[in-house]
Amino acid sequence: WGHRIPAWYCDDCGEMTVTTEEKMASCPKCGSLRLRQDDDVLDTWFSSALWPFSIMGWPDETDDLKTFYPTSVLETGYDILFFWVARMIMMGLECTGNIPFHTVYLHGMIRDESGEKMSKTKGNVVNPLDVMEKYGTDALRFTLATGSTPGNDMKLSMTRVEASRNFANKIWNAARYIKQKAESRKQKVTGSEETGKHDAQSSMLHALPDRWILSRYNRLCQSVNELMRDYQFGEAGRQIEDFLWGEFCDWYIEMSKIRLYQGTEGDNQPAEALPPGPAHDDPLPVLLHILEGTLRLLHPFMPFVTEEIWQQLKDEWGNRPYDAVIIAPYPQADASYFDDEAERQMGLIMDIVRSIRNVRAEFTVDPARQIEAVIAAGREFDLLANQIDVVATLARLDRRRLVLQPTVDSKPKQALTLVSGDVEVYLPLAGMVDLEAERARLQKEISSTHQDIERAEKLLANPGFTTKAPAAVVEKERQKLSEGHDRLARLQERLRALSGDQ
Predict the structure, then answer these.
(1) Mind listing the pLDDT tens digit for each residue in 17-37?
(2) Second CATH level (architecture) for the domain 435-499
(3) Cα(118)–Cα(361) distance, integer angstroms
């Protein structure tokens, strides 16, 4: 299909005439009426090249043409840059005197997991409808939007699509938790359309976690808007995901539970809901504010789940002049919320908790088991004294055997030492693991690691391997050797700690 070639042939004199008229009446050379039009059509890219202005009513000066031509940005694949984009520019200049757009955003090609081009003959074509049916439309959309950089091809991995589906589930569960708490407290964000500022700001006056998350959220807004202006959509989506999952869900929501619930004696787990306290003790306004704002930030990447959550929580948002996320203003940063000190302090708290969690994981401590700890806080004593509930709850420390002091005269025997800034945390191993069983396990692992190192050293000392094997294979073995030495050092250090030699 396409535009039929406007060439006419005279059967009497053989003259060929090209005309802009829809139909020729007679041959301009001999006057014959025996004319026939060329049966072929112009290349389809000729028709496509007319698209920017022809659909707006050109050649008539229609309102649509005046409004939408030229447009701003064209998004397309790099493989048709010459076939389509160049032709649109040439046709636009020829027919209207203007180029049809000022910016061309090129996306890469979607390839299979191994980087091969999809084709029916290879049998590696992925049907997007099947992926959407299994993982959801938002999951596929988010994967495609964040999986590559402009102009670069993307390997479409179902593992990544599944991870995007899990991200959507994470947001859904977080929203459900906040909705339940808001409904039980009849809490609303009653501030202005862009921030919900009044309630959120009153809550942030004293609580460190609130000041931290509000600062991080507004820095996110600043960064995402800059990235969107620079067409770095993938990085913008990744930063939103990192914030929602890695900071809001994994840290702030977990910290909010400490203020929303009252633990039973000897247990750090939530038990009984607390009544609303002073503004700075209540995290609900901030929970609602951050959730509402991040739903708007995420909406271009995951429109369906964000709109559904927003509508379910519509009554909790309070006074908003818009009825849907799709028509809501995109969040903008408020620099008055930037708080370097809150970010530094929370960074220290989080680093301490992570370090303790890592030790628990390395020694396979039962997640439900609360452990003993001695903390020498140094200059951070006041900070840790105020945030000790956060550290104890998130790191699963036993409050009855938790010692917090500015300094410690002598290090506890058979204890691991963790250092975060000026803070030292000692974890006595006797109350955390079976010492004899752990020694035996470590000695066995040290022996196995020695064997791995010897094997790698022998292989790399063989010229036949280093000169004939592919460079990537040789480099991989060197990396294994380096990792083996690092692992051996950690295991030996852990064994010394168990033996009380540190």
Answers:
(1) 998 888 888 998 898 999 999
(2) Orthogonal Bundle (1.10)
(3) 42
